[in-house]
Amino acid sequence: MRFVELVVNPDEGWSRFGRAAADDQRVTREAIHQLELMDDGSVVMLYELSGDHDTIHDLLVEHFDAKGSEISEVAGNVLVYAHHDPSPTVDGLLRIPRELGVVVDTPLEFTRDGGIRLTLVGDEADIRQAIAAIPESVHHTVERTGEYQPEQERLFAELTDRQQEILLTALEMGYYEQPRRATYEDLAGELGCTKTTVGEHLRKAEEKVLTGIAPD
Questions:
Q1: In the β-sheet with 2-10, what is the strand arrangement from edge to edge?
Q2: pLDDT tens digit sequence for 176-199
Q3: What angle do CA 186, 192, 198 make, to 5 degrees?
Q4: Most CB contacts within 10 A, which of 93, 117, 130, 202?
Q5: How confident is the model at residue 69 (pLDDT cuts 50, 70, 90)?
Q6: Spatial separation of the C-alpha atoms in residues 186 and 197, rounded to whole Å
Q7: Which pLDDT value is given to residue 158?
Q8: For 89-114, what is the mean pLDDT?
Q9: Which is nearest to 129 in space by CA: 120, 117, 116, 119?
Q10: What does the buried/exposed string (b/e) look like for 48-63 if buried means 16 or more CB atoms within 10 Å of the residue's CB?
Q11: Which of 66, 63, 56, 65 is nearest to 26 (CA)?
């Protein structure tokens, strides 16, 4: 199973609300956690934003033509559940996965220039057709491609071979248990290296993993 990570950005923007939120320095569009095209052509979505909550609410009221919506706060950010009609461009983009049999991995992340970074998963030929079907009015850039792995495995795969080895050994020997069952010296003896090497690689691996799972 293959994946391709790409950034897409329509000339016209994503919506009136999206353009208004992008122009307001008090608001940041963080991610779209769920996005589904319904049989009647409408869309349901779960949208995360950060920034001034009153401003977000005012922008939604003024610019978001929703059939129904609900706003909640989670971890200091604003989550918006909305049911609305997409623009023709967005409608065309959402029909590509349905018609060509590829899966859109979530969440979809917003880039600094207002694009959306998304991952398509499926057969390589189907992914190629999906990319070819993107309308000319939508700028798109392929950033990465390869064999698909779930998020946890992708994060682990970003570590170097040595970092993976030392991290797995630390887990197996109980370094992260409470109370701790192994020390740097124990790990060094098992791995045939110095305590300094163990500490350096573990710190780098921990930084990579924690950065990958922590919210921005």
A1: 66-74, 77-84, 43-51, 27-37, 103-110, 116-122, 2-10, 138-147
A2: 998 999 999 999 999 999 999 999
A3: 60
A4: 93
A5: confident
A6: 13
A7: 76
A8: 88
A9: 120
A10: bbbbebebbeebbeee
A11: 56
Coil, helix or strand for 129? helix
Q: Which two tokens stand for residue 83?
A: 């049911």
In terms of Cβ atoms closer than 10 Å to its own Cβ (0-12, 13-18, 19+), residue 207 is: exposed
Q: Are the CB atoms for 36 and 45 separated by under 8 Å?
A: yes
- Asked whether the predicted pLDDT for residue 154 surpasses 70, the reply is no
DSSP state of 7: E
- How far apart CA 94 and CA 88 sit, in angstroms, is 10
Domain residue extents for the chain:
2-148, 152-213
Let me know: does 49 contact 87? Beta carbons within 8 Å: no
Q: Tell me the two tokens of residue 124.
A: 């390589």
Give me the half-sphere count of Cα atoms (radius 13 Å) on the Cβ side of residue 40: 7
